[in-house]
Description:
It is built from 24 helices and 32 strands.
Amino acid sequence: MIRQCMRRPLAVAHQTSGRRLCASSLRCGRGAATVVAVDRRSDQQWRRSSDASHLHRGLSTAAVEEDEVNTDVPFGKIMAANRGEIATRIMRAGSELGCGTVGIYSHEDRFTQHRYKADQAFQLNTDKSPVAAYLDIDTIVDLCCQHGVQAVHPGYGFLSENAGFAQKLEENGVKFIGPTVDNLNTFGDKTSAKELAIKAGVPVIVGSDDAFATPAQAEAWINSSPITYPVIVKAAMGGGGRGIRIVPTADDLDQMFRLASNEALNAFGDGRCFVEKYVDQPRHIEVQCLGDGTGNVIHLYDRDCSVQRRHQKVIETAPATGLPRDTRENIFQDACRLLSMNKYRNAGTVEFLVDKDGNHYFMEVNPRVQVEHTISEEVTGVDIVQTQIMIASGKTLPELGLSQESIMEPTSYAMQCRVTTENPALDFRPDTGTIDVFRMPAGFGIRLDDGPGFPGAKITPHYDSLLVKITAKARNRKEAAAKLKRALREFRVRGVTTNKSFLLNMLNNEEFMNGEITTGFIAANPDLMSPLKEKDRAQKLLAYIGEIVVNGTPKSLGAVGDAPSPVDPIVPSITPEHCQKKKSLKQIFDHEGPEAFAAAVRKNEGLLITDTTWRDAHQSLLATRLRTIDMLNIAQPTSVALQNAYSLECWGGATFDVSMRFLNECPWDRLMSLREAVPDIPFQMLLRGANAVGYTAYADNVVYDFCKMAKESGMDVFRVFDSINYLENMKLGIDAVGQAGGIVEAAVCYTGDVSDEKRGLYDLEYYLGFVRELEKCGIHVLAIKDMAGGGQPKP
């Protein structure tokens, strides 16, 4: 049972940073105050006694003196019934007004920033899901009653537009810092909001009067109405871009309606949707308003929120640029007239669509503070959140010194972007993980509204991906964008992916900088998704050093057995002057082709060798992985010592895999670097036929293009190999190498003594027959490979 809680007096002192804060008159009882000093981050002690008339915040345990009372403090204690950056924003505003602040948090949010920004913070119901915990009205109201909370600010999202929440708070003596219950009932339901707009003479888009529960109901209305496709399906309740789908044709209605309905049902508990005519390529213009509940409403000018992705705002600007003067004035008048008719109280935003001809149409009223309220604050100088608190305490706009005449038309320009933990390259898939580095920007004209981000923060999949809002203020759009770009480049987040690259691409887009863009801008510019490549060298280096210091060198890199020798290897000093000069096999191949190369090999009177030191032979023998830099360090002596070699096998096969997976090196960069360092020895690689350098068969064109690229990057001899002599698998590799212009060295694999006449199927004649088939394929060189390494047949 939730009990009436604000009929009794409260008295408390918070331990602060050594300064006394003003007291507040509650006028809720009588008696003497008892004051207890406690730590602001602990679960503070609250003592009630009779005859209390003041709430005092400070270090002193003495009774509150009459001359210390400051009746301008709106509430003794307010709660931010939200999380993330908006909860922090509310607490900062309350603290500046002298109010005590209370936070709430779910189990998943127990380490997030907003918990620690409050004077007090209480955990929500752990039996609820991460989202449901913040929607648990009974628990939140009960916390208010138990801990003397006088007013609750809901922020945006969650319970911010829930009339039942506001009603229950009021029933228990707790002020709701937001619109009245009647305001919420009227504007929280888009159907009733539209009816009021029509009554107020505000232009609306043709649409259904009723919200529909099923696609069949929506289809029946469309067929009986004068509107044609495309239409838009919009949730009857909610906001934030959720529960909205564009329906291009009748065939798309069923799917789009169900998607919008399910999204709205999950987010707001109501899956009903209504249907409107879709205005193609409009601008999204909204007006920030303030009302005091007496019918007195003023506006804080407009915002352009046309940059949207799936109806979610991305970059907002204030004021809107390029609007015709008459259109702009009509929007202001319509917004204020609409809210005034409902005697609107507190902050609210009236949203409009403006078509290409300058006609404006009412969309909805958001009866709450919005994410982008910051830019209106920046261009008008009005603290919207503090004004919300003061209006909820009973102040009227004139008492706060706010009138339309006192709000000067903006002469500056503000632009806000939302940095989220989303990956634009993966269709904005939310990322999760631990933030390793979090370094925020600063400087003249930059405002930060930070939420869950800090070094060590755990980003979970349970909540909205907003990390921080960055707002830039300057004299004009160009200068504001320049500040925002600088701030984004200065911003460093490591550990999770952000949409930073997308935002920078937006700010560098010429069409965006010109100012007059529509809601279809992002969809029409897919290049905005191009990722930003950040090397993150310092963090990777620190992580590597830390890993080595704590755990030692990874065994995957061959760190097994005894420690390596402390003696540095000696690189032999070999100079070309001491070596015999003659036309190399590499030169013959380059100038005369693979056939000439094969002929030169046959004519050679001595033994030709293939060196495999740079291949993967060392992995089997020494369990080590040679890095590219290790090879390059020995490349010059190698190029001299082995200048008369048949080949240098240095690539392909397992080296490709090792280079990428174990050493994190590009195998193509390795090949080209080695080729440059050793220009005059034929390079050789292992090619597994149709498997190329992988472990499964690839499409033919992949193998052909791979061989072509390998040849162009410096490869000469391709040893085409199949461990079971499967000719069809080898043929693809042979053809691909031949077409690329490489030297085809086909391998025949055997095991044991092939001269043994009792071997059965795999005797000498079998192998001779296989070699004849290889020869027909047009190979240049034959390689005979003893798979067992036994040196059979013996002489």
